[in-house]
Specification:
Strand content: 25-35%
Distance between the termini: 42 Å
Number of helices: 3
Order of helices and strands: HEEEEEEEEHH
CATH superfamily: Cupredoxins -  blue copper proteins
Structural class: alpha/beta
Largest sheet: 4 strands, mixed
CATH topology: Immunoglobulin-like
Strand order of the largest sheet: 2-1-4-6
Oligomer: single chain
Length: about 140
C-alpha cells in the first residue's frame, strides 16, 4: 500500500513539473520602459513555474525586496552578472529588485496564483523611481 501511495505521489510531482512554464526575464540597462529594467517586469505565473533571470547587460543582480515574498519563501540575493532561476513554490506576490539600480526603478513583480499577500506587499515603501514603477506593476495584479 505504501509503495502505491509513493508511486502516486511521484506521478503527481512529475505531472506538475511537466506542466510548469519557464519565463525568461532579461536584466537590461535600457529596455522598452526606459533605463535599468527587468523585461518583462510583471509576470503572472503559477506555483511550479520557473522564472529565469538573464543578465543580458552586465552589472545587475536579483534580490527579493524585503517584505515582498509569500509566507514560507526563502529570501534570495544573487551575485552580479549571474543567471538565476526562481522556482515559484508558494502562491502570492514576489517583489524583486536589482540591488544597485533599485532607486533607479529596476524592480519586478511576480504574481503566482492568487495575490494572498497583497496587503503586506503593497504596504512596502520604495525609493526613487522604484516607487512609481512598482505602483504601475501593482495595477496589473489580478
Amino acid at each position: 500500500m505504501i509503495k502505491k501511495l509513493m508511486a502516486g505521489a511521484m506521478l503527481a510531482i512529475i505531472a506538475a513539473s511537466a506542466n510548469a512554464e519557464t519565463f525568461e526575464v532579461r536584466m537590461l540597462n535600457k529596455g522598452e520602459e526606459g533605463a535599468m529594467v527587468f523585461e518583462p517586469a510583471y509576470i503572472k505565473a503559477e506555483v511550479g513555474d520557473v522564472i529565469h533571470f538573464v543578465p543580458t547587460d552586465k552589472g545587475h543582480n536579483v534580490e527579493n525586496i524585503k517584505g515582498m515574498l509569500p509566507d514560507g519563501v526563502e529570501p534570495f540575493k544573487t551575485k552580479f552578472n549571474e543567471e538565476f532561476e526562481l522556482v515559484v513554490k508558494n502562491e502570492g506576490l514576489y517583489g524583486v529588485k536589482c540591488t544597485p539600480h533599485y532607486a533607479m526603478g529596476m524592480v519586478a513583480l511576480i504574481q503566482a496564483g492568487e495575490p494572498v499577500n497583497l496587503d503586506e506587499t503593497a504596504a512596502v515603501k520604495h525609493k526613487g523611481k522604484a516607487k512609481s514603477r512598482m505602483a504601475d506593476l501593482f495595477e496589473k495584479v489580478e
